[in-house]
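Lecture notes, unit on protein representations.

Consider one protein chain, 57 amino acids long.
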Amino acid sequence: MLVAARPEGPLTGGAFSSKVGALLLVDVLINTLLDVYPEYSASVFGTAEVILPLMDS
């Protein structure tokens, strides 16, 4: 007999903690990159200025 588990939402899925961990790792890597190579700062902020308005729509 097959038993179906209760459907999982995006916040209750088993992989949620893995996603949060991956985002934290990317954040740490980017911040370390900017600390070591400050010349990349303008490029990162320029990209953010272009992307952020697209996220509102």
